[in-house]
Amino acid sequence: MNQSEHATARQSAEEYVRSARRIVAFTGAGISAESGIPTYRDAENSLWSKYEPDKLATIDAFMSNSTLYWRFFQDVRYQAIKRARPNAAHLALAAMERAGRLQAVITQNIDGLHQAAGSREVIELHGNTRTIRCLACQAEYGMDEIFEQLKYELPPACLRCGGRLKPAVVFFGEELPGDAMERAAKLANACDLLIAVGSSLVVYPAAAIPTAAKRNGARLIIVNRTATPYDDLADAVLRESAGEVLPPLARAAGIR
Questions:
Q1: How do the pLDDT tens digits run along the chain, 256 residues long?
Q2: What is the pTM of this model?
Q3: Which of 9, 100, 139, 246 is an S-S bond match for 89, by CB 3.0 to 4.6 Å?
């Protein structure tokens, strides 16, 4: 995309935001990468370029040997999330919601940065790492508490019943939470503009949400540094960082 095409795409995106009445955001790992959280794929330093997802991210692997996951959580995941802070893109989306211009954020991310930025209507399709749950008695713990427990017990066990603990994330091989998918689908079907930010749009069924919005008559803006399978379907494609694109879009929505 040359400079002229880029400027035209930006102008179109801003106009779509100005004229929209029911805006929904759909976010992926790219928005969190700008806060220092590594993406899973599509980058030299992505997590899956360093670790084997079939040993860390599948439910079968977790159930057969959770120690590998909890070491990864202790050494990599926890530290990245604790250091991360919401960036300009997270803050812009939160401001759009407060101003009544954004209905909700539908996210594939598990880091809680949208909530930290002030977004209230956040639908987490892949769960989150902030909550750790006992699979036996359903007791819940915060990730800070479990991080401390990992210093003397690996894998950690439920302090109430001794059962197996699992983060409240959706592993490969697990179904996405039905209530979250239902809410996301309703929003996508009813919106008139969906802004997809930082998602490669290859992980299903979550990646079907933006295309569902488009099928139901909404405009689609894609903000992603690299190409996605749905760029040709989009009304505007901006291959820039989310932190550069979202604040101007928020200003186009009337937020100063």
A1: 566 777 888 899 999 999 999 999 999 999 999 998 876 655 555 565 555 667 788 999 999 999 999 999 998 889 999 999 999 999 999 999 999 999 999 999 999 999 999 999 999 999 999 999 999 999 999 999 999 999 999 999 999 999 999 999 999 999 999 999 999 999 999 999 999 999 999 888 888 999 999 999 999 999 999 999 999 999 999 999 999 999 999 999 988 7
A2: 0.92
A3: 246
The fold of 38-83+127-169 is SIR2/SIRT2 'Small Domain' (3.30.1600)
So where are the chain's domains?
1-37+85-126+176-256, 38-83+127-169
Catalytic pick from 6, 90, 114, 126?
A: 126
Closest CA to 165 of 175, 150, 155: 155
